[in-house]
Fold each of these.
Amino acid sequence: MSKKKKIRICYPFVGDSIGGSHLSTIELIKKLDKSKFEIILILHKKGILYEYLIKEGLKPIILKIDTFVGKKKGIAVNFLSIYKNIFKLIPFIIRNNIDIVHLNDSSIGLSWIIPTRFSKAKLVWHQRVVFPNWKLYKILSFFSEKIICISDFVYESLPKYYKNKSIKILNPVTLKEKEKNNYFLKKKYFRNKKEKRILFLANIIENKRIDLFIKTAKTISNLNPNVKFFIVGSDKKKLLKKSTLGGFKNKIIYIGYSNDSVFWLKNCDLLLVTSENEGFNRTIVEGMLSKIPIIAVDSGAHNEIIKNNYNGWLIKFNNLNILTKISLEVLNLKKNLLTKILKRAEIFAKKEFNPNNHVTKISQIYLEF
């Protein structure tokens, strides 16, 4: 009796960044039943993601592509990009007997959709951001056979005619084990036991609103000089340089990219999340699991994770005065009250963002094809 053929699933990424979509996909790949599924992980550039995947024990294939749909404006230039990639991607899919292409990134997704359909592989589209009002995006994503939304906020943004093939599946989130001893970081930044520390943890892009965080930091510093602020994340667009720190450089410290987010979550006293219109915020859930109090602006899917004054705090967007006031109140909250809120947050995060539940639901989709 011959063995049942494994389902071969391809996960393509650009490779020059690491974000929530990558971390969620890695958790999924690691937990998939390898007796049923065979994984093909594709990177189009050998960048920061490649090194990370190797450390995680995964072996990506480098398939070089220079142009991606959506990187430049204009219908003609984007269709030319699709045309160029067809002659590389279709043979790759056929040659590797790929059954399902699971797309997690919009640029990659828009570049892979047409080749996938011509190759007759099945197509899963993971919608991780609000559905954009872009005609080419609407046209191309129409060809996906299943759309996975990561929150109600994302699901509601879909065009009506997409919803009948869509399903909400929450992202998997677990805390990564500590990789190394951070003795020198602790010695450098955490010697003063009297200081309170507020954290911004995200790649610095427009919607993360680093400007709002810095305004809040300056206001809090003027009211309480015994508070320091840490900004941890990659700043490829140089947005931080546009923010004037003035005389606050000793108070607002830019760390840059860190592959140990848990260290910062567990050593700071408050996490501020100032981003807007996010389909999901992984850092909030990681913060809950790390037992750090969290204040987030009430935007996007944040209110699907945080219940105000129950497992965290939600602030009306752009209300600097309230954001400052609540931050100071949380830093001075009585230990027994804070412990209750942190425990509720941890229980909620473990239940709702359980990796095993995520893998079970995704596996069902794969097996239905």
Amino acid sequence: MGIISAKQISGALAKAQNVGLEEEAVTLGNCALVLRSLRPDEYAAVLHECAGLEDIDYLYAYQKGHVARSIVEINGFDLRGADFVEVEEDDPKRPGEVRKVKLELHAYVRKHVIDTWGREAIVTAYRKFGDVVKLADDSSRKGVKFIIPDETPDEKYRRLLAEMREIEDEVPPSLLNSILDEHGLVRKSTVEEVKAAMAKADELAREQEAKQTVVAPPVVPEPIVTPPPVAAPIPTQASSTPEDIMARRVPLNRQPIPVDPHQALQERVAQAQAQQQNLSSPVLTKAAQIAALEADAGLGLHPDLQRGAGVPVMPSLPPPPAREEVPELRSRGQEATDPEAFKAILEQPPAVGINPRFKPPAQRF
């Protein structure tokens, strides 16, 4: 186990002491002070002194505790090497005699110096103490490169915006607008500026309307609309049962075919032209046409076709031979079927409903 002497490392450790402690001079009225940043145990001592206090008492004790511990020089008198101050006070046990008492340096400064200041001077000294803390923070970070950033981008953005707002009132408006314009930003408009801009826009709009000539559009007569013909109401049927509907049903092959008037007129003209042609040249029947074809073939004319004044006449055909009676076969007890009755049955409209003879097939499970 190696042992080293403190004398050997005293010179090397001398520069390692008081790292991060910075001092800043300030003059309050006629009092020149030098403030120093605090050590961690001094911050803890201030919080311990403020324990149990509330509201304004806590605020006053918090500010006084920091300022009293940060003063290291008053009007040129150095307090850096002192930790206690010896004072004389009356001895309560021996009346008429005094005794020497040691007080901590910050307690003595606070009782005999800071407690005699005004509230504004205490606030100013505490604010200057904040500048000393900022200097200590910057000096401790100087020359050190952090891999992990100490603040996120949004936190840095908020901090910079807060700093900009603090010094915004100290910059002339024209210079501030110019700087913001360089970065593509504008200041927030006030209510008066918005109202003035709206009034200017209304004035320009009225001037534009006065320059333009209003031309009335030509009056176009409204077209006369003829109301469509009203269709005749469809008569309602008295009964709508299936039996009545089937009784009133007319088969499609018996319904009258609607006739187009133009087509009827054309048919009548065609019939008149055909009648004129019939008057000029007789129309031969099918038998006459066959006879004419036979005559052209050299077979001569049938005697019956030569009668009359050149008008072909259908020849008389012999009567058809009598049909033999065909016996009708039917089973016993079955009456003869009347053809007319059978025809009447076929021409009846179809019946509606379920066939009473229909039997559904048996279901198989």
